[in-house]
Amino acid sequence: MTDKFSPDLTKTFPCEQTIGYDFQDKKLLWEALQTDGSSNCPTDNPRYEVGNKRLAIVGNLAMDLLLTSIWHSTGNTSAVLDSTKLATLSKHSLEHVADKNELYRHIIRRPGTLFDVETLSTAVEAIVGAAYLDGGMIAAKRVVQKLEIGV
């Protein structure tokens, strides 16, 4: 299925500065900034029907892999890995990352909705997922480092 949708990409440029990564495919970042039910998303394409949630799944897995790769070189037990992932990838930790980096300035949400834990944490995951799909693990790692996820 060819995606002929042409979103307004003007909101992606300031976000790229915030996250420290310049996307080749700006539509990926645009998608990452759309909350579920955003009026900017076309309803005739399954890719956009849930806003940024599909990208959030990719981002969560990319961050999990990054943390696991770092853990591998430490020699720590798997219990340390599990606790690190729980602390770093929790909704509240990712909400803190979004707040600290003022990502709410870039997120496009459904009118009348608030920036809650779910919205902010999902946006962080989606942004990392978009970077991963755009530039691979190196791009995802750059965004994770710039946003200080896990620091």
Considering the chains and any ligands shown, give keywords for the structure:
151 residues; mainly alpha; globular
Overall description:
There is one protein chain. By secondary structure, this protein is an all-alpha fold. It is 59% helix and 0% strand. The chain has 6 helices and no strands. It has helices at residues 12-19, 26-32, 53-74, 78-88, 91-100, 117-147.
Brief sketch in words of this structure:
59% of the residues lie in helices and 0% in strands.
Order of helices and strands: HHHHHH
- Give the helix proportion (percent range): 55-70%
Uncertain ranges: none
Quick one: how many beta strands?
0
Radius of gyration: 15 Å
**Class inferred from helices and paired strands:** mainly alpha
| Percent of residues in beta strands | under 5%
What value does the average pLDDT take?
Answer: 89
Discrete helix count: 6
End-to-end distance: 40 Å
Query: What is the makeup of the main sheet?
Result: none
Query: Which word captures the global form?
Result: globular
Please write out the topology.
Layout: H1 12-19, H2 26-32, H3 53-74, H4 78-88, H5 91-100, H6 117-147
Helix pairs in contact: 2-6, 3-4, 3-6, 5-6
